[in-house]
Amino acid sequence: MSKKEKKKVLDWQDDVELDIPEDEIWTYQVPGLAAPHINKPHKYFLLKKIVFVIVIIVAVSLSIYFSVLALQNDTFEYTETAQGIELTKFSNTGYLYELDIDYELNIEYIAGNNDPKTNFKVVKDTTKPITSVRQFALNCDDKIKTIRIGETVEFVDTKAFYSCWALQNIEVDENNPNYCDVDGVLYNKDKTEVLCYPCDHDEYLRQKYGYEKELYTDEITPEYERDIQTYVVPSTVVKIDEMCFNYANLRVIYLPEGLKTIETLSVFKLHEKKDEWGTTPSLKAIYTYKADDVADSHLTDVKALGEIYNSLPEGLEYIGSDAFSYNTALTYLYIPESVSYIGHHAFWDTVYKDGDQLKGVTEIHVAVDEDTFENDLEVGDDWKPKYDFLLFKKAVDVVYSAERVKE
Amino acid sequence: MSKGDNSSLKDKVGGFMSEVKTHWKTPAEGKYVPYKEYKDVVIGVGANYAGSKTLEYIGFWSSCFLIMHHYRLPYLTFSVIGLLNMPLGYISALIWWYVCDNLGFLPKKKERLVYLSYGLMMAFGISTLLFDYSTLFDQSGSFITILNSFEGMNATACFKTFGTHFLYTGWVGARNIFWRKKLIPKYGRYKYSLYCDVIPKCVMVILIGWLPVYNIDDVATRVWVANLLFATFNVFGFGNVLEQCTKLISPNLQERILVRSYPIKISHIFNSILAIILPVIVGMLKDEWADINFYRWVIPVTFCVSAAFTMGLAGRIKERIPQPPIEKKVQIKFWDGMFGVLKNKYLLINTIVGLIDSLGNGMLPFATILYFYTFRLSGLPYSLIVALISFAGTPPDLLSPYFLKRFSYKQIMIFYQLSRAIGNVIIAVSMVLLRDNLALCGTICIVVLFFMEMTKTVPTTAGHDMGIRIGDYQMYLSGERLESFAGIFGWFTGPITTFVGLIIPIFLLKYGFNSNWEILFFDGSRTNIIIVPLIVDAIGFFLMTIPYLFWDYDNRKQNLVMEVLKRRAEVTEKKAEEEGVSVSGGYKG
Prior knowledge:
Number of strands of chain A: 31
Strand content of chain A: 25-35%
Shape of chain B: globular
Structural class of chain B: mainly alpha
Structural class of chain A: alpha/beta
CATH architecture of the domain at 333-549 in chain B: Up-down Bundle
Number of helices of chain A: 5
Oligomer: heterodimer
Strand order of the largest sheet of chain A: 11-12-13-15-17-22-24-28
Radius of gyration of chain B: 25 Å
Helix content of chain B: over 70%
Largest sheet of chain B: none
Radius of gyration of chain A: 32 Å
Helix content of chain A: 10-25%
CATH superfamily of the domain at 333-549 in chain B: MFS general substrate transporter like domains
Shape of chain A: extended
Strand content of chain B: under 5%
CATH class of the domain at 333-549 in chain B: Mainly Alpha
CATH topology of the domain at 333-549 in chain B: Growth Hormone, Chain: A
Number of helices of chain B: 28
């Protein structure tokens, strides 16, 4: 502590007394501090005022201008990359329901038309083909219903269309060499990867199969569940990409036995409408089928799928983090021998307590024995579901060396 | 411990008890606060603080779970609304400062003019809610096009949001003059607002949970209606004003620090208990934090109980700032106010620090992300960790009087900024290197957060104390504290900080953060969303040490300033008595 600092500490205790004459109470200057300025005229008052006002106006104007620039979104934002033009961001005008990703787009407003819903047209610049779509190019859009991907698009990030709540289907130009769609769901060209099942694909299916309205949980019929809430992943698929089925309205998913990878958040929080206001977890079952020539994603004839068994496919190797999180309607999970990696929180919140009763995935069945599981599998933290237990959380039991339960 | 030590300790405790008993109702010589008031501070400030902290669960900002989960408003929309409100904000601030720093007492002619301005603002605001002014413009013109391009908004919503701010400004401004004039002479300059706001605030807290505004389908309509609802909610305040009042509880520096360090710290226990209980209650709700019943029942009940206790004790906590009586106070002219604060060197240093601190604006609450999206905490475990970290600051804070004696303000603040910078860097590095090892990475983060909380409370106390001293110094300089006119510094820096504060949100959007917080479950996004702002913030903390090198306001100068203020109060009151004028609100110290 320096002498100066020590002095300061002592200052704390100092009793100071000032004998200020009555007529100097508004002018008395404390040594080391600026002099008071109370009810006195200012020097160069006018000049000071002018300088002050000018500085403030310039500072405020510039800053507002910069802020407006920073906040104003172009509807379409593109970036030139080495591979071509990339769609980096789409900000809906509020009235766009379809989006073409083939050439650079621009909004042109129609003079004289004052209706914001119809007073613009989307203009394509066919000299500028789009080659890629960046991650989160569409993020939380709640208007776009259809996306059409053109033939020039070489790369679509698996997270390109994140949380597009109204998205019903993705159509891919049949001449695109890299991607295709299967009835509105995005795949790579050889259908070994499924990339994006649109959040509101059930609305598209309802229109296709003639259902007039969305059914609530208690109203759902077996036919509705089969046509709208059941999805058959084609037999060619070996990988379900990140966030592929998240937030979908599905009750049953059929997986092919050749599936190797279920990526991060790919079957995250599937849900259906419980009533007018709320939703409830929907995914009730995962089945694996053995047939190797299934291309139709609609469950037309269950026999066409060949032998079917409960839960995840034999041959599956990788389960990403949060892959099945928040699916409390799911009741059975079997981890086959082939699995070598389970990400953290892979089955988080798939179990819950209803009164004294445990519901959902109350235990996890594993094919291998405990030693093999501990030694050979790489597992992330909290991969097992947990439920409320005496104000804390407790993981469900794991049944090792388990036999797969037959339906 | 020897027998002698034991008896000495016993003597000390006995002496302390006897001192408390003797000065329970009348303060000791050289002191101003009786011990009974310490007790009132504990309960009153405790309830006021707990109530105001409860209100933090509801607010029109992106980190509010009610807003993001139930209202589902796009993240950038809040910046857009801030921008729309900015121009009027500047104009209304001028009137506001003038009114507040004159404590609501204006010359009659000016008062009528101000009321008229506020009335016109309210009329315009109401008209924008009734009519859609956007239809008056060419819908294909660039003006409407720009408004339509704002995230989560359209031209109609922009006009209604703009008008809502007029309504809000007029309403709040008119109330401000009316209630200040009526209540300040009786209740003082800080706690008066409780008396006029508490009942409507309780009503609004209840309405916020029960009005089904979040069910509106169209996002732009939802935005402006929610903005209107929350603007009305914000008209009535329930700030932590009793604690503000205790900052001026004594002209004696040591007594101020004592009150700040002990009764105030103890009073915060009420909120700490609530911070444990509320998440446990949330854990019992069906949809936990996403359960609307939290906002319909838990928050209103907690708030109303806190408000009742606050009002019960508010009258017993006194403001003891040496000041002339209101009838004889210095009348602050507009330009005197403006130039008065610009003369205050220490406000200028604080402004530069604030400007640098804006580098972290727009950052998501790191600890919340860690608890909810990395550890998936809820219920009791969440409460315990939050309580543990909150508690970390308590023991050092009890030693604040010692630290404030032992170290200068400059030393304390430089240490504080450096500790923040180092903490941020450690967290960022551990998140990069231990990406998949959640347990180890999380443990490091919790330990660092604990350390950062530990090293935060003493500088916070020092900062509060220095804030009061700067006010005293301003009163010495200008005859009033000019707390409102000090906002002029925000005119220089506010727009710049707003602009700088947009950088992080835009960056967050790039990594997928928008109205759906569940992207934070995705490791890649979560890590980027946390790390980059943390590093930017760390750079800011390093830079913030520089302005403090120029700080030279010490205890001696403060004591001298207080002597001047006391003398002014003494002389003005004496003169008023000689003139036979009846006076109120003065304090000689």
